[in-house]
Amino acid sequence: MVTTLTFSESGSRLSPTLFGICAVELIHELRNKFPELKLDDITSIDDFNWIGAFLYVDDMVLIARSATQLQHMIDACQQWSERSRMKINHVKTKIMVFYETPAQRASRQPSHFYLTPRFPLNKSPTPLPLDKPKDFTYLSLKLDPQMTMQLATSHTCQKINWAYQTVSAIAHSLKNDTPANPRGTRTSPLILYRIWQSCVLSTTQNLRYLLNSTQVQQVQSALISSLQRTLHCFTAAQITMLELEIPPLILRQAEQLGSLHFRYTVTHTHLISAHLYTIRCQRKASNAHPQHSLENRIERAYHALGLSTSYPGPPTMPMSVALAKPGNRGKSYTTYLNPLVTAEWI
What we know:
Elements: E1 2-4, H1 14-33, E2 53-56, E3 59-62, H2 67-83, E4 86-88, H3 102-107, E5 114-115, E6 128-129, E7 136-138, E8 141-143, H4 150-176, H5 180-186, H6 189-200, H7 213-231, H8 237-243, H9 249-267, H10 272-283, H11 294-304, H12 319-322, H13 329-345
Antiparallel strand pairs: 1-4, 2-3, 5-6, 7-8
Helix pairs in contact: 4-6, 4-7, 6-7, 9-11, 9-13
């Protein structure tokens, strides 16, 4: 997280362009200092296989192969920030080490990471320790160091409960703050369901990250519980979902994984993640990939939707998708999968 010391007005149209110009300089500097941080298996996209840093708007993720290398990268970012008259926010800068064993943690050098800002420049550097949290939330997805996705599952269930509280507050307001005549209409089960649908179902957009059916079932249970409490209807969950046309989340997850496969093999093949996915699919037959690996989960999703004949290659493109504009084909393919989900469910 970077705080600028010299900046354009907040909300200015120049701000993203100016930040992009500065950030490009930083990326080039990191690539020149750490050229070894690349994936040699990816050769078809020229030199875009460098993975030392990823930018998402004004957030940056640094990726290193050792603790020492990461500290050197942090120092390089600090030096660039001082030259560019920016200040890195050390409170919002976090360190997370993935798949680290206790033995590796004990022997890691350095064991702590620091920023060493010196503002003003004539001031001696002041080491500021960086936090190493047990979990980290990025783009609404909660990550844990071992990538079990159990925290992401619990966080999704928690968001469902929060959304239910919003629905309850709206329903209470409709019941008590409206005139007597329209009150019955505004608090009807259909209206309550539409409110629930907009508030709660939107929390299940990241099902593709969950690793197993147990995690999906946990989210499903939280979803059904919130729906039953909203409608004050406690019939069998399968009947309620069937009447309201809500497919099981395991099929909704298969739909999301199918759309991700389409993205990686058809519409966004230039991405590093797409190239990594293609390589892993090619090597899946000769390697014992975990059952919860992305390529295995996508293969099971294609079997569940009856599309396994095209896997792992690009899926057959239906006419409705082929006729769509290139930028809309991803959404068109998701729309194409919806009837397949319904057919497998009913």
